[in-house]
Amino acid sequence: MTRIPAVETKRLILRELSEDDFEDIYEFKLDQKVVEYLTWGPTNREQTLRSLRKQIAFQNEENRQIFVLAVVLKYTNKVIGNALLMIRDQDFKTVEIGYFINSNYWKQGYGIEIVNGLLYLGFNTMDIHRIYAVCDVENAGSVNLLSKIGFRQEGHFIKNLKVKGQWRDNYLFAMLKEEFKGL
Ligand SMILES: CC(C)(COP(=O)(O)OP(=O)(O)OC[C@H]1O[C@@H](n2cnc3c(N)ncnc32)[C@H](O)[C@@H]1OP(=O)(O)O)[C@@H](O)C(=O)NCCC(=O)NCCS
């Protein structure tokens, strides 16, 4: 699989990126609040454009492992976030997901729609067996979001990732195909 078909939730479309998405993406990638628990960022215009072009180039890779999608608000067409699917084990059909949203759109249920869209793409479109997410133990938004959707907390990694120069603890959350209730 190279390009992935778009998926629609109630208010959002998750679709492949294009270079026209740049300004909207730059708006949230330079926001300290958005990248607080992430290993990268904030990024300047040049870094954001370089990474966007790299992510678009993945779309044409033969054995594509990384799918970075634009999260588009249906009623305005604005790109309010990114949603990621990363194939971590092809033989055992395991995928890691990631997501981040423009902070002006937090706490309105969009996170839940995005993760459900990713689960649909992973389990239904790509026939994945296991989907997991790794998040900072203090990232209450992400911990609540994953718990609410029905992910199981399976691990607690001590000093697992370095974020803004500090070693951070992470939770591992996972869901199996047979546990997904559908969109
Ligand atoms: C994590 C993130 C995607 C959540 O998105 P969101 O759209 O605000 O989440 P939702 O509105 O769907 O909320 C899901 C649940 O989490 C709760 N929640 C969301 N943000 C929260 C916060 N900061 N603190 C506590 N709970 C929070 C919501 O209240 C909701 O639970 P409820 O329905 O019982 O009220 C968003 O905060 C974000 O983009 N953060 C920065 C990037 C990031 O950390 N990504 C995750 C990396 S693992």
3D architecture notes:
By secondary structure, the protein is α+β, with helices and mostly antiparallel strands. The chain has five helices and eight strands; from the N terminus they run ββαααβββαβαββ. Strands 1-2-3-4-5-6-8-7 form an eight-stranded mixed β-sheet, sandwiched between helices. α1 (22-29) packs across α3 and α4 packs across α5 (140-149). The protein starts with 6 loop residues before the first strand and ends in a 7-residue tail after the last strand. The mean pLDDT is 97. The structure holds coenzyme A. Coenzyme A is lined by residues 34, 37, 99-101, 106-112, 133, 135, 139-142, 144-145, 148.
> Structural class, please?
alpha+beta
Q: Which fold name is given in CATH as the topology of the domain at 7-129?
A: Aminopeptidase
Q: What's the total number of strands?
A: 8
Per CATH, the superfamily of the domain at 7-129 is Gcn5-related N-acetyltransferase (GNAT)
Query: Strands across the major sheet, in which order?
Result: 1-2-3-4-5-6-8-7
User: Kindly, what is the distance between the CA atoms of the first and last residues, rounded to a whole number of angstroms?
Assistant: 22 Å
Rg (CA only) = 16 Å
The gross shape turns out to be globular
Strand count, sense and closure of the main sheet?
A: 8 strands, mixed
CATH class of the domain at 7-129: Alpha Beta
Percent strand: 25-35%
- Bound molecule types: coenzyme A
Helix content: 25-40%
| CATH structural architecture of the domain at 7-129 | 3-Layer(aba) Sandwich
The number of helical elements comes to 5
SSE series: EEHHHEEEHEHEE
